[in-house]
């Protein structure tokens, strides 16, 4: 491989940006001039090429970086000095080091595959160029996030991907639900950003405050090469402050990476096109939180308390999302909750101190989750946009390539392996995480080893993961019944879906009938207008799938990425794991604060853990096969009625989403009410009070204005006597004494 | 001036002034008020003249200080002139008020109240 100079990293950043600009300004024109077939081909190529080129450059740069000695793989390149105010400097600088290059490879590699896939998936879309504009912009922003050498650039990328997520989720914005989902994603993200921003501020304060003591003159308080080496010195002996900053950064990561309680945007984000779900909500954006934790790992190493909180929240999220996934019937929603659950795993790893395991899981998860989403997209595409799994069945016969790739992904995410010999991607990364969590001594809060608890919960969730993924795979690809052909609807659960539909409709109607008061400014659509628009939408809506529909295998633009990702899911984990390759790549000198003995995998446990992991995965798969092998349990007379309340609750996210939205709306209204009363009562009261005081004095003085001339004369006399008396007294004092 | 002590004149002046002052405050008819004002002015005149007349015998000073004693008498001339002018104006105002209101009662002219 020719030696690519590290400076080419600017091209890695710049190519997607150039692609974005070209698409934005020329994309629509090209499609309009050259017609749909050729125009779309050109626009698609214009979209994929920059990302693919960036990927190749990334490989070259990584190869170059690997030639550096292990401790020195950290090169900072500056483009220009961006902010220089008084004592703080924030240049536009990038860092080329193993962590950022790993993320660059994931982003551009999987990104280019998904771009290729999207050229096929969005083929019938009339807003073709707009889609790729947003997608390229997303890649550019994500690259800024991972490549930036300071937290400010990370934040730019952070916000940028938030915006792109909003734009892409709400891509089909004419449907109000999509716009609402996009809003939800962005707003919840912003709530997390409060934590991130506050954390950044405290870091700047601490660094600037300690600058004298540490002899730092640079002023680049947010840059990693200034922040990270000095962090131990700055934060030692301050457990409370360290924990606070760590938890604030974690809040930011929660918002972006969908941890409890800020996960509720991710399932709604499935309203966007499937390539978006694959890229943003599986492989890249949601891993930004894990990336942040890896970057700032020193900080988290210094605070066992914060790490414990992170581990336990990760474990809880993983469990919660896994349980919810059992109640979902929409294939994309299952995958969404699966993503939330797997992200929980990554946070368990970071909480336990095994940061590299978190990144390892990011990588393998990117492989198989992107594969799952793209495969699901292929299935949806082949089934005329039908997403309800209760209408699938026996699809392996019709979609062999897609099915095979999805099976590979299913095995990968379940974490199946042949003991001592070979495992699929998910097995290695999950085992590493669980090993780090169960054996780690770092995540201890209040004397309880929360990391270990998180590890056991993780083992349970691994089993549940295998279980619900088997459920999904079996319902979709296996079974003899092709349920969309059945005349009487998908299942006895029809009541469920009707109920859900009615709920959604009622929600819409409820929103329409919300009492906004008299609509003075004409902000809201009238009833008639809403009805007309709903009718127009019906025409745009896909119709329900016909019983005579014959699914056809998808085109090469779509199954090539599937195949590539399938191969990666099979060998990727094994390749990165053997010889601790990934760990040595990311953390060649071990962790900064924690001694290596703190996060070992106890050698004597290793075998036991391997068997436990495989056992959990197999148990899950077997359970899933047992319940679903003959199709949907209810149809086969299984008495699962007692599970109905659970599934209905699970389908509704255990009412968390409802309560959260209602609560925040009501809470916001109450807050507004209270502030209104304060404003009127207190502040206006103070202002009015001053006027009242003036009036009081005026009233007092008014008594002197009697209008009576004689009284005035008397007052004049008294005044005169007073002045004379005073003068006499002064004269006496001066002269007499 | 022989025999009559200065203080007697001064006391007379003070008594007249007091009567005038009380009258200005107590009486309601503006004409009577003016008369009391005149009384006050005359009391003041008397006081000035008393000092002008009695001072030289108390102060054995040379002829260059004659001016200061004479200023008392000059003051009296000024006061008498001012008093006359003021009465002219004041009576004119009273006539105007009478024409307007058909009464002249100081207590009922309290439109500047408040």
What do you see in this structure?
The complex is a heterodimer of chains A (737) and B (114). Chain A has 737 residues and is mainly alpha-helical. Among the domains of chain A are: 303-488 and 552-651, no CATH class; 652-705; 713-737. In chain A, 70% of the residues lie in helices and 4% in strands. Chain A contains 26 helices and 6 strands. Chain A has helices at residues 9-66, 98-121, 128-147, 151-169, 176-209, 211-214, 224-235, 239-257, 265-268, 274-283, 288-295, 297-301, 304-325, 331-352, 355-382, 400-414, 425-439, 450-477, 494-513, 527-540, 556-577, 581-586, 603-628, 644-651, 656-702, 709-736, and strands spanning 75-85, 88-96, 417-418, 422-423, 444-445, 448-449. In chain A, the strands form 3 sheets. Chain A has a two-stranded antiparallel sheet with strand order 1-2. In chain A, strands 3-4 form a two-stranded antiparallel ribbon. In chain A, strands 5-6 form a two-stranded antiparallel sheet. In chain A, helix 1 (9-66) packs across helix 3 (128-147), helix 5 (176-209) packs antiparallel against helix 8 and helix 13 (304-325) packs parallel to helix 18 (450-477). The longest helix of chain A is centred in the N-terminal third of the chain and has 58 residues, at 9-66. Chain B has one domain (6-108): Orthogonal Bundle (Helix Hairpins), CATH 1.10.287.3510. Chain B is 75% helix and 0% strand. Chain B contains 3 helices and no strands. Chain B is elongated and about 60 Å long. The model of chain B has no long low-confidence stretch (mean pLDDT 86). The chains are: A mainly alpha (737), B mainly alpha (114).
